[in-house]
Amino acid sequence: MQGVSKLRQMIVTIALAFVPAPAFAIDEALLPRNLSPWGMFLGADIIVKTVMVGLAIASLVTWTVWLAKSIELRRKGTLAMRRTRALEGNIKLAEAAERAGDARDAVAQLIQSCAKEAELSGGIVDDGLQERVALRLERVEAAMSRQIARGTGVLATIGATAPFVGLFGTVWGIMNAFIGISESHTTSLAVVAPGIAEALLATALGLVAAIPAVVIYNHLVRGIVNYRALLGDASAQLMLLVSRQRDHREFRLSRAAE
């Protein structure tokens, strides 16, 4: 009986030796050890890395444009408001042109353009003069509006495309994860999860780039609209100034506007 028992134990031992290991028993050396965002970036495919770097650059561009345009809007808006208030007093066009000098800000160019048209008209005051002045002011306003809006279009592009670029990186990363599953002949979550996490990181970066871009774009658009309103107020004040001088028949300039 003891011989049979020993023989049975030997058979069981040999049988266990040939039983395959469970699917979850995976060599720890095959598993990534760093699942932080930086570690996932380093472990990602070259395509996914390129997508992530591009999204990071887009995010940097977004914040750079926000800083630059915010400073520009604040500086130009303050100057435009100050010059517009100066036109509200009892001031002649020649005096306003002299104060503006050779400045290149928007309201100064409006004043210079108005003065230039008055000079070219030779002091002849009629309805045609007011129409020509209004046309000049409209052209200057359009040019200044295009100038102040320069650079904001990139924010709209980033806000519209960044989520899809991130999604492309995610799709590519998941494809690689499934290829890895096929090559490793296992469906263990410990093997699949790191690749999927790396892929989803691309989508997260896409949202991180897109959401601020959309918010900042809307904020800058509101600031640009306010700035255009200031230019409209300045043009209206100049038209009133021309009308007052027409009524008093005092439409002579002391200097030519450049």
Number of domains: 1
The pLDDT mean sits at: 78
Largest sheet: none
Alpha-carbon distance between the termini? 120 Å
Secondary structure: number of strands: 0
Oligomer: single chain
Uncertain stretches of 5 or more adjacent residues? 14-32, 251-258
- Globular, elongated, flat, extended or rod-shaped: what is the shape? rod-shaped
Helix content: over 70%
Q: How many DSSP helices?
A: 8
Order of helices and strands: HHHHHHHH
Radius of gyration: 35 Å
- Structure classification: mainly alpha
Strand content: under 5%
Question: Helices and strands in order, then pairings?
Answer:
Elements (H helix, E strand, L loop, with lengths): L1 H16 L19 H7 L2 H42 L5 H8 L5 H15 L6 H22 L4 H32 L4 H59 L11
Helix pairs in contact: 2-8, 3-7, 3-8, 4-5, 5-6, 5-8, 6-8, 7-8
Q: What report would you give on this structure?
A:
By secondary structure, the protein is mainly α. The protein has one domain. 78% of the residues lie in helices and 0% in strands. The chain has eight helices and no strands. It has helices at residues 2-17, 37-43, 46-87, 93-100, 106-120, 127-148, 153-184, 189-247. The longest helix is centred in the C-terminal third of the chain and has 59 residues, at 189-247. The model is unreliable at 14-32 and 251-258 (pLDDT under 50).
